[in-house]
Amino acid sequence: MSKNDLKNVSFEKVQLSEGFWKEKLKIHKQAVIPTCIANCETNTERINNFKRAAGKMEGDFQGIYYDDSDVYKALEGIAYSLAVQPDPELEQKADEWIDAIAAAQQEDGYLVCYFIMGVNGEPRWTDMERHEDYCLGHMIEGAIAYKHATGKDKFLQVAIRFADHFADVVGEGKKHWVTGHEELELALVKLYHETGNEKYLHLASWLLEERGHGYGVGNGIWGKADWGPKYAQDDKPVSEMTDIAGHAVRAMYLYCGLCDVAKETGNDSYLNSLNRLWDSTVLRNMYITGGIGSSRDNEGFTADYDLPNDTAYCETCAAVGMALWNNRMNLLHGDGKYADVVEKELYNGALSGVSLDGKKFFYVNPLFSDGTHHRQEWYGTACCPTQLSRFLPSVGGYLYAYDNTGIWVNQYISSTAKLHVDTADVEITQNGNFPWEGKVELSLRLTQEAFFELNLRLPGWCKEYRLSLNGREYLAPYEEKGYLKLYREWSDGDRVVLELSMPVEIVRAHPKVKNDEGMVAVTRGPLVYCAEEIDNQETFDTAVFTPDTTFTPKWEGDLLNGVMTVTAHTKAGELKLIPYYAWDNREASRMKVWIPFEE
Amino acid sequence: MSKNDLKNVSFEKVQLSEGFWKEKLKIHKQAVIPTCIANCETNTERINNFKRAAGKMEGDFQGIYYDDSDVYKALEGIAYSLAVQPDPELEQKADEWIDAIAAAQQEDGYLVCYFIMGVNGEPRWTDMERHEDYCLGHMIEGAIAYKHATGKDKFLQVAIRFADHFADVVGEGKKHWVTGHEELELALVKLYHETGNEKYLHLASWLLEERGHGYGVGNGIWGKADWGPKYAQDDKPVSEMTDIAGHAVRAMYLYCGLCDVAKETGNDSYLNSLNRLWDSTVLRNMYITGGIGSSRDNEGFTADYDLPNDTAYCETCAAVGMALWNNRMNLLHGDGKYADVVEKELYNGALSGVSLDGKKFFYVNPLFSDGTHHRQEWYGTACCPTQLSRFLPSVGGYLYAYDNTGIWVNQYISSTAKLHVDTADVEITQNGNFPWEGKVELSLRLTQEAFFELNLRLPGWCKEYRLSLNGREYLAPYEEKGYLKLYREWSDGDRVVLELSMPVEIVRAHPKVKNDEGMVAVTRGPLVYCAEEIDNQETFDTAVFTPDTTFTPKWEGDLLNGVMTVTAHTKAGELKLIPYYAWDNREASRMKVWIPFEE
Q1: What is the ipTM of this complex?
Q2: Which of A120, A157, A382, B167 is deepest in the core (most CB within 10 A)?
Q3: A424 — contact with chain B (CB < 8 Å)?
Q4: Interface test with A, best of B478, B515, B528 (most A CBs within 10 A)
Q5: Where are the alpha helices (DSSP H) in A243-373?
């Protein structure tokens, strides 16, 4: 049986309950969205650029050529928020933005403000790095999200017109095109699913096949001496890729596009490329936080196992990209190891990108800070804030995968979800306290008995667990591909309790990572911990772990919106650790993830 | 870094020390080889057929058309034995056989006795099921083995002439050919490596590509109503295969051939087929003993999760085939899960194929016996005894994989091995008591310090372990793809001690296996256990396990050549379990692997 039939249960069908992630959704609504709105329409000219491009406002284009995409990503996040929590005022704001966007669309469907306004006389569709395709891609994603959330399809029609225009300009017998910042590929597959029109799938496929043959032209990348085609993963055909290289976010979106096309076509060479790339990325180039990208210079990769902690780039967008990609790999292969990476990003590398109050963001997520690295409300290149604005409200979509044989529980997040397995309607409720406690209670509501598989992900970090079924311990559940597999005739009211043991653990890096030689990191369940000097004036520089070091976890409800801290008892004194995602939410302070370890 | 560079350390470089497997090698030498010799030259006409085919003996062909292959497989086993333990008498016997074989070779290189002798007037190279290619394949394997063991290449020259003859008969522009019993593909890749002549690799590749297009003809398979092309995996092109089907041993050899060609060519569609087939085989169609093949009818497969215990076919040859195939998958992917399957066969499904004294063999390995199923000295179709005769002495070749970056320790077997990692000569010694105890001490001898990875397989059954390096506990070793990864500058005399916890475990089958519903099996480390009625007159039918059942392991040195037994304390009384490989070595007795379990 091919796992190519696995789909996510859409976040719209997953209602989060009180708990860690519901709090994040509240903060998203209360702070992240308003921050994005303010920074698109008031603090910057992003919205005004559309009005100017439409001839409805005076003045020149202001900003960077790809700024349109932030508006689309913000709209996507607004749409996801509206989908679960209607809000007429917010919807009205979005409609206003969409009207401004639509008004700027050219006769032929083209819509990139920078070029419409003729900045520097730059011609369209000439320099492939100018993010025109990138803007189209995010427009498509935002427009589909908005249609699903509100039923309104004005934005979608704009996106379709722009996509059709692009399809007229490039393609066989027309212009070559290598997407200078990959994104459009995955968006076109979404558009294919939305419209049923296969031409979008073919175009996505064509775009992937255009890469690696020397067709890429543009001053920003191909013409730039120290970057070259590798920066945008244009150095070899996608079927021949073996190692992650170049710009991290571009790589992530490219791999998403490969997954999406491979899922439709079963393309063997894509599947194998993806497997090689996953090993390269996760096994050789990923930080323990899930962050990727060791170099500021190309916002990407240097060499295998080169993972400096202080100069780690670990762009927030790329961590979110890792979640997007690994979720797709999970749907392709039905293997829990991919959902393990999604979990890692959810609780560490992506989550650290936003402050606890939702008002500030990291672009860069280092694993060591000298105390001068802080979140900001916005950036000139604002991809990271808007990325989180669309990622956070969609988190519910990562909980479950399903097909007509069963359900795969990928994330343990308190919620109620409705899904359909074969002929059975199933409502599955989770109650738990992740990431603080490893116990989760799942209960099923069914209108009638039904046979199906219930697959519970056994996280890679979990060494011990206990499972019970309707109150009785269930010994030795069958394990397969990282899941505990239960298959039986389920009845309304069936309850499963899974208790994942969550001791504090020390973890080593891959032994080839010289940057972490002689050091360990501390984890507990899915969380990676760090030490801030604020909590450790005496011991920040002197604490050393040994095999005898003991650790005491402690719930501190008043600290950092409530966290489990871990105190290490070392010879030099106590070292207090907090979850990495929560660092830089108090006064400026040095921070480190890797702690010296004496064998 | 591609794992396509991984190779095994040849068994010739691995000297087994006193212990479980060294004992098996002794029994192989003392009993299995003589049994094969006697049954090839005295008790049957296999050797005489060659003499008759050469015109050096009177009389008709006697036996089955594929009987030549048993001689080749026996010779292969003899060669492997000679490689580590020279024996002039045995070598002389082999040379006599080879002389008889060579004398039967026709002018054009052809050599299948049945057809040379014109049995029933059957023409050569017409009915693709007649095992002509199969005999050639085993000849090649035996001949290469003999050359490596003795330096003598007479047999190899015979094989090359026969292979070249076949290459003249079939191929592009010549005859289509679908190997009716796959084997030749993997043998041709061996011949390619042996001779450096690429034509053998191309021929192997061509043979694989011939499959699944309707070219197969022959009364024995394609013409047989209830078998059809699926029986010999000829129902679809190899690139499109998704599920294991048909005859089990054929499937195993086909998959070996696919691995071998894919390793040379990197063929993406082969790699993906193999991944799908592995899931199909191991996750949906394999017994807990590692046995495969649920049906006597086609000596193969019925449907996913259909695993009857009493009528399990589980041909010994197929269990060995699983080891051959999974070792190749390990070399392709560097993942310990494949070596886990090799281990499973070594200690269970393949090993049960031979009696403790080495004189009798199972063809069929059921998981339930009514007491009437027993090993025999030989069979009309003698593939299983000869399969074990070549498998057992080659076991040393499964211990290690290596490339120029490191060593992968795949099996824990007391031994000393010499290998070469990059520029370093390394001698690695293992001391342990597998499968009875989980502690293994590894020590390294080096002529000079060297950096390399030492990867220790963490078996899938192992939930807890302890590692120490030069006497000190080594906490939290990095785990990757089923291995504990140590990377450091190694010095002469370095010692690593790995202690794998080996409690008695109960195990469930995949919940869709109805045959095992309400039952559990007992394992301890790599061993699967069973109950024989001999030990359990009172409780064989009445013992039921519950979550409270306790188990007591006990070493019994005088039982079954020394085994750890496991006694289950149940309400009905004690149920004594022995390792599955050791069943049917005493008086006739009922036997079962799966025991009723009350939740």
Answers
A1: 0.91
A2: A382
A3: no
A4: B478
A5: 248-265, 268-278, 284, 316-333, 336-344
